[in-house]
Amino acid sequence: MRILIVGGVAGGASCAARVRRLSEDAEIVIFERGPYVSFANCGLPYYVGGEIPEEGKLLVASPALFKKRMNIEVRLKQEVVRIDRAKSEIEVKDLETGNSLHERYDALVLSPGAIPIRSPLPGIDLAGIFTLRTIPDAREIKLWIQQRKAKRAVIVGGGFIGLEMAENLTALGLKVSIIEMQNQVLPPFDPEMVSGIQGHLKEKGVDVYLKEAVAGFEEKSSGGAIRVLTKSGVKMETDLVLLSIGLRPDVKLAQEAGLMIGKRGGIEVDQQMRTSDLKIWAVGDAVEVEDIVTKEKTLLALAGPANRQGRIAADAILGRASKFRGVQGTAICKVFDLTAACTGANEKTLMRLSKPYEKVYLHPFQHASYYPGASQMNFKIIFDPADGTILGAQCIGAEGVDKRMDVIAMAIQKHATIFDLEEAEFCYSPQFGAAKDPVNFSGMIAANAIRGDCPVAHWENVKPAETVMIDVRTPEEYLKRHVPGAKNIPVDELRKRLSEIPKDKEILVYCGVGLRGYYAARILLQNGFTAKNLSGGIKTYLNRQ
Amino acid sequence: MRILIVGGVAGGASCAARVRRLSEDAEIVIFERGPYVSFANCGLPYYVGGEIPEEGKLLVASPALFKKRMNIEVRLKQEVVRIDRAKSEIEVKDLETGNSLHERYDALVLSPGAIPIRSPLPGIDLAGIFTLRTIPDAREIKLWIQQRKAKRAVIVGGGFIGLEMAENLTALGLKVSIIEMQNQVLPPFDPEMVSGIQGHLKEKGVDVYLKEAVAGFEEKSSGGAIRVLTKSGVKMETDLVLLSIGLRPDVKLAQEAGLMIGKRGGIEVDQQMRTSDLKIWAVGDAVEVEDIVTKEKTLLALAGPANRQGRIAADAILGRASKFRGVQGTAICKVFDLTAACTGANEKTLMRLSKPYEKVYLHPFQHASYYPGASQMNFKIIFDPADGTILGAQCIGAEGVDKRMDVIAMAIQKHATIFDLEEAEFCYSPQFGAAKDPVNFSGMIAANAIRGDCPVAHWENVKPAETVMIDVRTPEEYLKRHVPGAKNIPVDELRKRLSEIPKDKEILVYCGVGLRGYYAARILLQNGFTAKNLSGGIKTYLNRQ
């Protein structure tokens, strides 16, 4: 059996290795148009910034290793330019010699990846405007910075790569500005969750321009610097531009071969990663996969799913019944001293799909607050109000963020509910958690909301005319900063001051993060008031400002 | 409704607070024989060692806070000495005045906790022999160290508290020796998993005596130092002894009241935490609970389950249907620069219960190995060989250990299988994980074993006469250190050297950690050999030495 694989990074390399482990007899050839296979794409920003000092570190497996350990042939700088489905052949162009040859396949696996988007803006092809996707990309950026003694960088697009590069370019001493079209950085998150990240970027000296788009680029005469022009008329002079506005699946080859392309623009595959051609599979960033939470088709350019898809395709090619279970969008991004991670659906998506959901905010410490180093996280969990099924979660903090999102990722995979989180048993010693872990808390607060023990309200829905807002913190906290229109009745005085509160209006209580508000709401509810707790307290309110 | 609660630490305090949140009308009184309620027991070793500088940090909630926020009365230094079930009364002794009084209840909650075991050894009551369970205990130890200028400590018992205290006393400059009766420290783990912890303790200057028991203590004339005598005849001079040989549930009150006591010596309760008396509930370290993996009754002295039980009891008292789901023994211990964590059943327990299980070992890096700071973990996962249900996991390492065990804790709670771990989607950026996370790897290796793709063998079962052992690492690695009796055929030469391997014997291959062994086993299996991979490679072999 002759298995040809187009693209030798995450998905393709995983598929090739898996095929060999399942079959000693298969002939396996990987065609890679770039100069490397199996490299650590996710390490590129840290190689640019010097955190990863050697380029060689990024090379997970060399062609020589593929050959000697796995008897897999790797052909570098060979681009597959055409698929002849009728003949089960591909046409391969040697990018060094320009020669073409034809290769026959029994099974073909497409792992072409995705291409960084370069909008056709004026000046887009000027020297000094980069994207970052490959080792040569990283090398060029490093060289440019050294040779030009670059002092300033403009990053277009505040997604994961944009923010990782903001940190790494800052580490190299560059003054970084980020231009982002949306009203927030990190689009997989909801905007109120990343306001802290935006503030943190500013603290670290990064200028963040939201709701701002690039109109074009101009070359400045003196020294090759670039002028970035925005649609609102801002002009920025810079030594380097990084475009990180997103990726599009590289479907050219598949499309030209007449394979089905999905609505989102990715290659259509079934659960075994098979395309519309029985002999052709596709994996990785170029394919559309099902989101297990929303059941929608989606594009997700992440290494983990790509690797798993590669394995599934290998299984399928060799007649196994393995199926890809879909994706849930678990992702993480370190931004200077903070980490942002998420899993499952965000609120924006659920709103767009008109799916019913409820949410709660919390701000727990990552470990016992009595132990040194405790720091607060911003945590949001989204769930089905009917049965408590977890739909998604987002968390930002200094430490322990990855742990909580991985736990919830596992929970979502198993269709767990917030009631399961309430009862979950996690590691507790003061360095690592608390007797009630943040994940437990998220389940408890959500369960209180669903059971009606403590209904929640959300800041974005507050209608001052129809409600009474009570700040249940201490007078000192209230005086320092409070929400306009809120009356102060400290929770510890509430039982004695119930007569001050109207019974004919909805009472919204809030505190610092939601705990005292919970106590206050319980007192009010049991005394016949209609009360709700403003989820996340004033901390979430401030995140929304 | 009058609800009396005996014991005001984790379970009792949680129960009281929950009752109040559910009922403004209930009269709630907590009786606590000690001087504090709701303190952070788990922080005591770090208070002794100075990591937590102020005693006040350990106090989670004061009686004053209970009163003003929750309208809960806390009576300190009041010991409940008798339950009169017929009259629904308790007799309470004021430990300061000696006076007794009777208090009527509608519902009684027992949260008496557990008592550190003090074996009746000669000299056990000498000054300078401590246990650590309460704030006064910690204060006494600190004072003793200061006043006596203690330089040496002997810790009897190498469990969680023993090891945490070894670290903290070492931090204070004491030379620490640990005496442990079993052949390992940290009894919730299997012995081969903690050999690295034992080595690490030695590196940090702690002497560890395994399979050694204390025979008695003698006072040394000069300066009040203590001589510890062991059963094997060792004599150790020390300035301080910490007994940390375990806890027994404090069931005196319950037993004298005629409540049912279980086989493990704890108070018997149903899923609603109700004892054999309809008006009496019990929670925390004193009760027997069901282990969700083994279905056995067990004692588990941990704060997380105690808190959850307190909530369940409160719900039950107020007529709610909440049920305690049982425990799975998720626990963690930091030992100097290493962390050990586990969840679910260990191998010792499964063996004792004659439950069928399989296991695999792995030694993955906690994050991408190309990113600085990567360090290897010792990871073991135990599963049902019939259907892959996860039964337990143990992990030791420098970083990321808590995360992996929390994820698997969640998986076990949801009855997940190793196949679920294979397909799980976790956070990946190079600081936090890898495209294939250690948890994914554990699932993949286990799945390979179950599916027969790569059957595993274990070092403890190797029978040299019946098998051929092949070390598939490089000659350099082999020469440096190999397992006696193993022949060296590097994996990359294996395809060419198959003729050197007998077809009529079982072939056991091993490498460094198991990955090359996997490749080698696949090559052999597909070429008609009977081959197994020695799980965890030479690293696991060395852990067993």
UniProtKB/TrEMBL annotation, chains A, B:
InterPro entries from the UniProt entry: FAD-bd_OxRdtase, FAD/NAD-bd_sf, FAD/NAD-binding_dom, FAD/NAD-linked_Rdtase_dimer_sf, Pyr_nucl-diS_OxRdtase_dimer, Rhodanese-like_dom, Rhodanese-like_dom_sf, Thiosulphate_STrfase_CS
UniProt protein name: CoA-disulfide reductase
Sample GO molecular function, one term: thiosulfate-cyanide sulfurtransferase activity
UniProt key word Zinc-finger: no
Pfam families in the record: Pyr_redox_2, Pyr_redox_dim, Rhodanese
Family annotation (PANTHER family): NAD(P)H SULFUR OXIDOREDUCTASE (COA-DEPENDENT) (PTHR43429:SF1), PYRIDINE NUCLEOTIDE-DISULFIDE OXIDOREDUCTASE DOMAIN-CONTAINING (PTHR43429)
Required co-factors: FAD
The keyword Flavoprotein belongs to this UniProt entry's keyword annotation: yes
Domain Rhodanese: 463-543
Family classification: Belongs to the class-III pyridine nucleotide-disulfide oxidoreductase family.
Record keywords, A-Z: FAD, Flavoprotein, Oxidoreductase, Redox-active center
